[in-house]
Structures are given as C-alpha cells and as structure tokens.
C-alpha cells in the first residue's frame, strides 16, 4: 500500500485535498493521471451498464435532497455508526465495531459508552438556519432513482425488468476514513437500480452478482484469484435489504468490500409512496397488473475501483538488469493508452512523431513524451503510470515509414508500418 500511495503522489494521480493548509482528513484531489483513470473507470462502467444494454437508462439527480427523502428512506434513523470517544489524553473517536474492549487503541485511556452517530452531512437551503430549511448531501445516489421512478416510467418506454443508472458524488461523514481512498468522506458512486417483478428477485439478484464479477475480471482485468463473493448474514444486512452479496478484493489490509449487490425488495418505493402519498405502482401493460417492483442494486464507488486497480496492477520486475516499477493496468482503463516517444529531439523526428500523435488522438488516450533523457528512462516513466504501448519514432522511420510498438508487459518491440499503426493499436487496445 505504501508503495502505491507514494507512486500516486509522485506521478500525479492523487493529492491530499487542500494540502498547503494541512489537508482535510478523508478528502482527496485527483491530478492529471488520476483524472484520466477515473474517467476511464466511469466510462467503462457506463458503457457496460447502460450503453451496451437496452434495458437500462440514465439519470442525474441532485446532490442535495430535502429531509423528507431521508426521513422516508430510513437514513435519518438508520444510517448511523456506533461511535466511542476516548476520555483519556488523545480524545480520539472510534467506530465501536473497530475497537476491542473498553480502552483506547491509541493512548490506552478509557472509552465512553457507544453512541449512535449519523453519517449524513447536513446543511441549510436559504439564509435562515432553521429546522424547515434543513437538507442533506446525499450519502447514496439511489434515492434519486426512487423519487424519480414515476417520472422515468411516464416519460420513457421502459418496461419491467429495467434499470436506472446514475453516477455522481456522495458524501458520508465517516468516523474513521482510511486506507487511502478506500474509505473517504466525499466519493463518487456508480449505482444501478434494476426494477423487477416481485417474484423474480432471486433470479435477477443472482444474474447481477455474476455479471458484476465478470465485469471486474474480463473488462477491468482484475486478478480473479483476488476476488470473491461474500454473502451477508441476516444480522448484518442494511435496513432495506433482503439479501446482499459483496464482491470482495484481497486488499493488503485483508479482504474488503469492493462492490455491494443488494436485493432492496420494494422497500424504497413503498416508503416513498407512503410518505409522499404519490402512487408509485407500475402498471404491467401485458397483464394489467399493478404492483411495486422489487429492486436489485449493484453499487460501487469510483474510488474503490481506483485503489483496487492500482493495487492489483502494481508490480516490480527486472528489465535489462535494472529493477523497474510497472502498473499492469488493462488497456481499457490505462490513463495513457499510447505514448508517442521520438528517439531524439532532432527536428525531423519531432515532426513525424507529432504527426503520429495527431493521427491517434481522439481514438486513443495519447501522450506525447519528448522530455529529455534516454529513451529507456521514458519507457520506465510510462511503465510506472501503466501505459501499455509506447510508439517509438526513430531515424529508420524517415526511410521505411514504420515505427516501433514497445509492449509494456513483455517489453517486446514490434515494427509496424505507419499506415497500419491505428489498426494494429485498435486490435491491441480497444476492448478485448
Ligand atoms: N446504495 C447502496 C449503498 O450505498 P454501500 O455498501 O453503503 O451501499 C456502496 O456503498 C459502495 O460504495 C461500496 O461497495 C463501496 O464501493 C462504496 N463506498 C461506500 N462507502 C465508501 C467510502 N466511504 N469511500 C469510498 N467508497 C465507499
């Protein structure tokens, strides 16, 4: 973990938020390669959850929602963690389920009795801070899909079974943020509420568990041996869930939740129907039956995928008798898919290299790397940020109109006519 954290800072993936003022615990900024990686994760998720399907539509709801939503959904009462504070010297606060006994793990002082602490960030709309103006930053995007359910079925041609997907920021005032971006206070959720016939929840629950696991292995390239499914026992289920399976990853700090797939039953639609007094039932056009659909929900944050990808991809090996650090990221998500590196700073090489760069931009995530230094050093830099392919323009290029593709993982080199380069890279990079 320390090595990955150091790499993300060194290479401009992640910085602590507001670092020049000492940072803010549980908040992070994303630098140039971090932004590229996050975008790639988001796009790949959207592509497979929405664009390549004909049964899922998108939604963007607001980050701030009124108290009524959170009262109805149960978050005001149930979205709590038990908190214990140290009464000794350090005064640290702990999540009760992470400490054993009654003494503070930091200073050994006594801990107070557990109190329930709500994880939602509260603020006010308008100039007066009173009860009626209280609103909350959403701790999940899911409620947007439920409160807009009627709007979506009335304005589109969706038919059960169908899903509504959303990506966007969520906020949780976590008591103990940590493990880098694994648990943060501001993060980006990617959630899909899949509405099904009530008696079909088990079969769709199973479908989505398997489909999400497949996505991690086949599309993101995660090592299947470091993934497993964990079925929650009844006593640890969220207040809305009939059954939940976590897709877990074998992190350096132990197995941890990467994504949750939950069977939310008709809990949310039912409570919103009761509180809002708006009929949220669905009329089946074939059977004329009216019912509240049940919901299967795969939910994951971009940040969890981000840290998992980096940990899974990080490797050290030896090339030409020199140690190297390499991120073996899948080309689908690599922040830079193709780096164009002219062998030297000679004018005639730069011209051709720039032409190659322009011809590939738009189709691939391309970086032009002419920084000084030996070509080997530039390859190493690209290895560290996970670039799967470097295109080298050398003096032979001026005569044979061919370039070299250098493969990150094997370090093998392949000579390709410039006319065939885009097609060859397409075969290598574009979703396999
Ligand atoms: N709508 C269901 C829901 O929010 P959750 O298990 O609380 O369920 C879903 O969260 C996913 O969001 C988790 O599997 C994890 O990927 C991510 N997540 C939750 N809390 C997080 C945090 N504090 N920081 C980063 N990601 C988080």
Walk me through the topology:
Elements: H1 2-10, E1 14-16, E2 28-30, H2 32-51, E3 56-58, E4 64-66, H3 67-73, H4 75-78, E5 80-85, E6 93-95, E7 115-118, E8 122-124, E9 134-137, H5 142-147, H6 149-155, E10 162-171, E11 186-196, H7 201-219, E12 227-231, E13 243-251, E14 254-265, H8 267-276, E15 282-283, E16 290-291, E17 294-301, H9 302-313, E18 314-319, E19 322-327, E20 338-342, H10 347-360, E21 366-368, H11 375-385, E22 389-393, H12 397-400, E23 402-407, E24 413-417, H13 421-429
Helix pairs in contact: 2-9, 3-8
Care to describe what's here?
- With 432 residues, the protein is α+β, with helices and mostly antiparallel strands.
- The chain has 13 helices and 24 strands.
- The strands form seven sheets. Strands 3-10-11-17-14-13-12 form a seven-stranded mixed beta sheet. A five-stranded mixed beta sheet has the order 21-20-22-23-24, with helices on both faces. A three-stranded antiparallel beta sheet has the order 4-9-8.
- β15 (282-283) and β16 form a beta hairpin.
- α2 (32-51) crosses α9 (302-313).
- The radius of gyration is 25 Å and the shape is globular.
- The two termini are 29 Å apart.
- The relative contact order is 0.11.
- The model has no long low-confidence stretch (mean pLDDT 95).
- Glycyl-adenosine-5'-phosphate (GAP) binds next to β11, β14, β17 and α9.
